[in-house]
Amino acid sequence: MKYKSLLSMLMLGVLTACGGSGSSDSPSVSPPVNVPISSSDASLIATAVKNGSTAGLNVSHRALLLQQALLLAQRYQQQNNAALSDIYSGASLDLTLNLSKNSNLITPALSTIATPLMVSDEGRGMAAISQYGKGRGLAYGADVLAWMADQSKENQHFALFSRAFNWVVTGKAAGPLPATVKFATAGYDAKSVTKLLTRMGKTPQAQACDLAASTNSCWQDADVLFFGAGVKDDVELSRQVRKYLESGKAVIYMHPNWEDSAGGRKVLHAMGMELGGYGGNYFASTAGMSAGSQRTVSDALKQGDRLALLIQAISQMSSSLSLDLSKDTSSADAITAIQKELESLQSTGGDVFAEATADLHQLLVLWADLYRPDIEYGKINRSTQPAEFLRTYASDSWLAFNRANTTVARAGQGDFMPQAAQQLPVSSSAETIEVTIAQADGVTAVGRAAVPGKPVYIEVLASNGKLGVQSNYLRTWGNPLTDELSEGYKRPRHPQSFTLPLKAGGETVLVSPFGGPLYLNYAGAAAGQSVTLKIRGAARYSHFDFTKAQSDEDINEAVAALKRKDFGWQTAKFVGGEIQQTIHYANEAMGNLDPKVYIVDQIKGLLFDSNHIANGYSNMPMSANVATLCTQLGWTCDGPIHRAPGVQHFVGWIAACGYLCSGNPSDGFAGISGTGWGHAHELGHNTVQRVMHIELNGKGCLVECDNNILASAHMMRQYALTGIDNGHITDHPALYQYIVQNRQSGKSGEAQRADMENRLWGGDSQDPMRAVHFQLAFLYSKYRAKEAVPGMQASMDYFTLLTKADRLVSKNWEAGNKYGMSRYTNNTISNHELLYVLSSKIIGQDVRKIFAMYGLPLSQTALDSVADLKLPLAPEQFYALAQKKFNQVSSGKWLDLASATPAYPQ
């Protein structure tokens, strides 16, 4: 299709159905009704497209927009299917192909110009074709051209490849190709092209031409332009390739491996395609990267018809509908496919209303805007109102965030955002905001919010890496197709924005129909530095930022917003952690507490600080004992090596799994609590270090146990500071009972140790396993801190030193006695032996007898390494915490086990 202006397309007169040339398996849909469109309506719609705004349109234009979109979709379907039918019409084509793991995905990013040529048996893109202007394109996720040129593998694919090649060059799969084919290459081996053309019986003629240079004119002399992953990345590359296509050139791209290519992405972007993500097909199954022998021409044509289901969806949205959407998701899937195309366009800096190939998308976005104001979340039932449900689903999906205008659901956005948020004031003049960056790559709260329907303008004043902006940082947000029917359609289907790249110069605009906290997405940044932004059109809300100094005014304003509940979300930012939770959950978790106590003392002071102390992160000051011992041992215990390894995000709204779910972000159906063990448990999952993971013959203190050592340290510190004991179990009495049973077995030496290993580490009870690390902490308090009764601070000091040492061994290891590893030639040591040598060094005692008592096996290398330290030999002993006072570390008494096994105190 040659791209006309939308106005000229609309003014063709009476719109009639094109019919399309899809396969016989295409969904059956009614053709659009013949609808006359007045010149004034056509002009209004064209103006709306030009401005990216429905201003000037009214409810009556909804039907017109859908009808025009349906007509366009059918025209593109006809164009795309005609090309596929031509390529696949060859007799006796072998349709099998295996790209191998060393390949990548090639997927249409704009179905208006790109079409799948081949997909794998699992539906992953293998190759695609493109039509734009007078030109055509072809791309493969592997260097299939070189295979065909050398006849090295997959030679059965040559016939189909030849027809696709001919179609790209001549517009017809049967050719014929010119006798002499002039070609130029960029980032691709010209020798392979020469071999291929020679095999095809043509005379190759290579042209010396820098295709990536926007100033070159030599491209005009070539018949075919070949690009590969090695093409030079240039800011104008996509535009240049689009110019080649528009002028009628044939463009071919071959991706040779599973790796990324910045230049290759831009070539594919010009052809309406995108490259797969990290790893490509490296982790794919055979069915994920190949087409098997069962593939038929009918299959290929059906798989290539990307628009058939969209046509079906538009038709269903335009009429009454009787359909079980929980079982038949084909129309919803088609809506999602367009959503993904809109995301691909916007996330690469494209503007849907400035993109000539997105005329279909423009109409769909404007229709979504017109439909949205009347949506009432919570009142739409997918069983009894399937057409209304589908329309709402589409309105929630067809979004353009990088413009100045959108519409909002007047009744509010369900439990995502209250209606009151639409009236929040926004800044009329620009504010300068410094955003701290914790690591090289990540996402971090900006401290300002997008109000539903109001544009935010962002300018970068001081850059730090590659930057983007988005509203909200969510991992899960519900699914109206699968949520309980009793819940109805509770909230926007996709409430977070796409990530929009921030311009290097000038303002980037973001507008969301749903609003939400603004987040900076960054990559290749300098950790610990900052980005300076200039922002206007944003609102203040309940946000706390403890990564930098906060004024009383900032804190008081955040506290007031938390109490007002007029914005849907509350956020907090700490060193190593960030929170985004609904305003409802935040107030529920806070209860009757003063907001400052809840945010500062509980979430920061207990949840994050306890974890960071136990992990030895440098954002927490070292105690005097830790600092002294680090100096004595010659350890580097501060500085960049001990930075928190990443920002752990928590979201309180919806969990991806269970009630609380690990990951980053970690999410749950609850507000973030600083005193319960649940969030400490989840934070532990994402920060636990190897010295807490004890695995012996496939069993031991593994995942769900090792992270709970950190949760137990949190509970221990919490009780000492606040008197709150939530009863999180670290079962010292059960551990002691294992010791008693082991001693009563009558075994000795290695047999006795192995018996204890089987009892403790081979069992399923994790609570006594976790107690071992705390018994070592209590030994530290006795021998190094000289405490008669263990205290919380000294016990935490042990974990601080242990985790700091763990990092030093991993990142700064050196031979000798510095870390107690004199007999090791490198740092490849088992976790439990590392725990042994580091604990001996930290405690100042050789704890081999203690480790044997707990059934932990030690190699001669480990034993000799610690022997080289010439430390006193710690006798067998046990600190018996009072029954059911697992977190109250000063409640127990020491038991001497060297010659007897006394009863556990009651």
Give the SSE map.
Blueprint: H1 6-10, E1 14-15, E2 35-36, H2 39-51, H3 61-87, E3 97-98, E4 106-108, E5 114-119, E6 125-132, E7 135-140, H4 144-150, H5 158-170, E8 180-186, H6 190-199, E9 203-206, E10 224-228, H7 237-246, E11 250-254, H8 262-270, E12 273-275, E13 290-291, H9 297-304, H10 308-317, H11 330-347, H12 359-371, H13 386-397, E14 431-436, E15 442-450, E16 456-462, E17 466-471, E18 500-501, E19 507-510, E20 516-523, E21 530-536, E22 542-545, H14 552-564, E23 569-574, E24 577-582, H15 583-590, H16 595-614, H17 624-633, E25 648-652, E26 660-661, E27 666-668, H18 677-685, E28 694-696, E29 699-701, H19 706-722, H20 732-743, H21 749-760, H22 766-783, H23 792-812, H24 831-843, H25 848-853, H26 860-867, E30 877-880, E31 893-896
Parallel strand pairs: 7-11, 8-9, 8-10, 10-11, 22-23, 24-25, 25-27
Antiparallel strand pairs: 1-2, 3-13, 4-12, 5-6, 6-7, 14-21, 15-20, 16-19, 16-21, 17-18, 17-20, 23-24, 26-27, 28-29, 30-31
Helix pairs in contact: 3-10, 3-12, 4-6, 7-8, 10-11, 11-13, 12-13, 16-19, 18-19, 19-22, 20-21, 20-22, 22-23, 23-24, 24-26
Organism: Iodobacter violaceini
Protein name: Peptidase M60 domain-containing protein
Domain Peptidase M60: 441-765
